[in-house]
Amino acid sequence: MATLPADLLAAALRRNAGAPLVTFYDDVSGERTELSATTLANWVAKTGNLLQEEFDVGPGSTVAVALPVHWQTAAVLLGVWSCGAAVLDTAGEDDDRFAAADVVLADADRLPPLEEQGLPELMGLSLHPMGLGMAGYVGPARDFALEVRAHGDVFSPWQPADPAGPGLVLGGGDLSLAGLVETATELAGRLGIAEGDRVLVDQRTATEAGPVAWLLAPLAAGASLVLCRAASSTRLQHRAETERVTATLGLKLDGIRELGRPA
Fold first, then answer.
1. CA-based nearest residue to 47, from 29, 26, 31, 71
2. Are 89 and 16 in contact (CB under 8 A)?
3. Which CATH number fits domain 5-258: 3.40.50.300, 1.10.10.10, 3.40.50.12780, 3.30.460.10?
4. What's residue 61's pLDDT?
5. Which are the contacts of 94, defined by CB distance < 8 A and separation ≥ 6?
6. What pTM did the predictor assign?
C-alpha cells in the first residue's frame, strides 16, 4: 500500500512502465510531449539527485515551486517528495513566503521579482518544449535544464522519508507526506477516477485545484494524464477524442464524463 508520493509513481511503473502516463500540450508554443512512467521516473530521479546533491534537500527541507501546470512541474514535485522534503505551493506572484524556503524553483518569467528578494538558492526553468535552458539569461538563478541532465537516473535518498513529515505547505494548512497520499486516494474515490482512466486537466483547473488534485489523485487511482496549458477551447473536444480521454477535471466536453459530477 502506498504511504509516500514516490510509491504512487512506483505503482505506475509496475502497472505498465511503457504506457503514456503524462501527455502535455501547450497551445501557445504548439508543444506536445508524452512521457511514459519510465520517462517520468527518470526525470524525477534526476530532479531528486539535483536537489539532494546540489542543495542538500532532504527531510525537513522546504522547496518552493512557482511553476505552471507542465510535465516538468510534475517531475519537480515528485522529485521534491522523493527527497522527503515539503513543497511550498506558491500560486501568487507576490507571495512573501519564498524566503521561508530552502530552495526556490520558478519558471523564467517569474525570476525578476524573485531576484529582488535576494533568495539564497534560486533555480529557473525555461519550460522549453525541447527541454533547453534559459537562452540569454544572465541573472543569478541556476538553470534547471542545464544542471538536471548531469545527475543520475536512479535516486536513493540519503535519509529515508518520514511519512509523518511535512509534504505540502499551504496557506490554510499543511499535509504530511503520508497525508498527501491519503488525501489523493480519498479525492480520487470521491471524484470517481477509475484505474485506466485518461484524465484531461487544463491549466486553470490545475492552478485552482492544486497538485493533489491534478497530479496525485490520478496517480493514486492508476489513471494517466493529459495536461493542457493555455488550452484553446476550440481544440479541447478534438484533443480529448484524439487522446482517448475518458474523463475531465473541471471541464465539460461532449460525450466525456466530468469527474465529480453525477452521471
1. 71
2. no
3. 3.40.50.12780
4. 97
5. 113
6. 0.96
